[in-house]
């Protein structure tokens, strides 16, 4: 499996923030933690492709938001935050060699963080960053390839996947205050611990689940559910509202 990652911008202090107050980010520590994340993916069998960072693009490390990639196609997104639109070109250069490219165009907006894919089922959270046009355009591009694309509503968090993510084959981790468990018919649901609302974003790589050590109560639930956990530290990028899926694009 290939995985795309992007260096942390030296300008990350100016990142977009929606639900959190601005707190100082230790850039050096953030880079150490990001390297540990990359090493973790490597140890799980990913071949890493690194996109250079850019001081002018504060949020560029959150590469997930710039594209939705399926085996058949890479769909370049159109981020809802205007400050993030220029992130796409560097990522497109890297994806060009790996997939045919399609695009989300104005007036549609779509952030990759709002798109959850499990097998041939795709949920697109419509909210502050992704609009109904964005979800419709993604459906138009992916349904011919056999995907079922469902636009859904959510509330309370930045991206749809800030509140839910795949936690194993046929298994979803979610915060029921933000995400309706009824969306996931036929799948097993694990709820985050109520004291850890931000714990719903984990990264499934093969049979392993990359998780954030900050959410120890939820980690106990995942452990009890039989997940094989790889625990890392995400304290610095969490201050920029970044979770674990945001830092990479996995190409299976
Ligand atoms: C933003 O607000 O766009 C960034 N500061 C954080 C993006 C995190 N990405 C994600 O949840 N997929």
* DSSP strand content: 25-35%
Report the strand count.
15
- Based on secondary structure, the structural category is alpha/beta
Low-confidence stretches: none
Rounded to the nearest angstrom, the distance between the terminal CA atoms is 5 Å
Reported for the largest beta sheet, the result is: 3 strands, mixed
String of helices and strands: EHEEEHEEEHEHEEEEEHEHE
Helix content: 10-25%
Q: Tally the helices: what do you get?
A: 6
- Biggest sheet strand order reads 2-1-15
| Principal-axes shape call | globular
Q: What small molecules does this complex bind?
A: citrulline
Calculate Rg over CA atoms. Answer: 17 Å
Mean pLDDT over the residues: 97
Question: Can you tell me about this structure?
Answer:
With 252 residues, this protein is an alpha/beta fold. Helices cover 21% and strands 26% of the residues. It has a three-stranded mixed sheet with strand order 2-1-15, with helices on both faces. The relative contact order is 0.18. The protein binds citrulline.
């Amino acid at each position: 499996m290939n995985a795309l990652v992007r260096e942390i911008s030296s300008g990350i202090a100016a990142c977009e923030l929606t639900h959190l107050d601005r707190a100082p980010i230790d850039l050096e520590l953030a880079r150490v933690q990001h390297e540990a994340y990359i090493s973790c993916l490597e140890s799980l069998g990913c071949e890493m492709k690194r996109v250079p960072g850019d001081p002018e693009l504060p949020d560029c490390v959150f590469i997930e938001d710039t594209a939705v990639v399926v085996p058949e196609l890479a769909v370049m997104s159109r981020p809802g935050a205007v400050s993030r639109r220029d992130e796409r070109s560097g990522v497109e250069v890297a994806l060009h060699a790996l997939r045919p490219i399609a695009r989300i165009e104005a007036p549609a907006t779509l952030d990759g963080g709002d798109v959850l894919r499990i097998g041939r089922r795709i949920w697109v959270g419509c909210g502050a960053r992704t609009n109904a046009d964005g979800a419709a355009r993604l459906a138009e591009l992916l349904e011919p390839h056999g995907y079922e694309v469902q636009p859904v509503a959510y509330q309370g968090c930045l991206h749809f996947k800030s509140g839910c993510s795949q936690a194993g084959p046929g298994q979803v981790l979610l915060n029921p205050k933000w995400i309706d468990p009824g969306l996931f018919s036929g799948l097993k649901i694990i709820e985050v611990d109520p004291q850890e609302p931000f714990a719903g974003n984990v990264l499934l790589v093969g049979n392993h689940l990359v998780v954030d050590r900050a959410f120890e109560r939820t980690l106990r639930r995942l452990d009890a559910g039989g997940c094989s956990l790889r625990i890392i530290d995400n304290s610095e990028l969490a201050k920029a509202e970044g979770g674990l899926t945001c830092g990479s694009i996995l190409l299976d």
